[in-house]
């Protein structure tokens, strides 16, 4: 594991665990629960992708795939989470760290989605070598990896995890009728 990713992983571990716990409440085989799962992502992903810009040439946006999956399910895009201000590069990389990590998780979750349900968004995993390319780009972006850069990147990553957690809890409440 590259050092910058290892540092970010440690700095965000608690937030990542909370997001995983929040999203574990969705049943991806059930159409209603899956719609809510995708809606939770749609509240956050477009906002974060738009705020990031393009700090890495290997990055591709997944929001269009997510919105197509929702459309196939007859769901209008939900209101977006808060708008994010223009970010400095370290914050962009912190956000991208979360999104690229979720791409890994999405590939695993795609296998659990009901057979009749669309899964473009979750299936948009890393192509051969792209995860390593991201890690290499993250490491290069942080050179020299001074404490201030890491602090800014970690704070941005934690903020994105919190946005996803809040959105998951909101949508899960809708599924459970609260």
Topology overview:
Blueprint: H1 3-23, H2 31-52, H3 63-72, H4 89-110, H5 120-123, H6 130-141, H7 147-175
What is the CATH first-level class name? Mainly Alpha
Overall outline: globular
What is the percent of helical residues? 55-70%
How many structurally independent domains?
A: 1
Summing up helix and strand content along with how strands pair, one would put the structural category as mainly alpha
Question: How are helices and strands ordered from N to C?
Answer: HHHHHHH
Radius of gyration: 16 Å
The whole-number mean of residue pLDDT values reads 91
Query: Tally the helices: what do you get?
Result: 7
Low-confidence stretches: none
Largest sheet: none
CATH architecture annotation: Up-down Bundle
Could you name the CATH topology? Heme Oxygenase, Chain A
The number of strands is 0
End-to-end gap: 41 Å
CATH superfamily: Heme oxygenase-like
Task: Determine the strand fraction and express it as a percent band.
Answer: under 5%
Kindly describe this structure.
By secondary structure, this protein is an all-alpha fold. It has a single domain, classed as Heme Oxygenase, Chain A (Up-down Bundle). It is 67% helix and 0% strand. The chain has helices spanning 3-23, 31-52, 63-72, 89-110, 120-123, 130-141, 147-175. Helix 1 (3-23) packs parallel to helix 7 and helix 2 packs antiparallel against helix 4 (89-110). It is globular and about 45 Å long. 33% of the residues are buried. The model has no long low-confidence stretch (mean pLDDT 91).
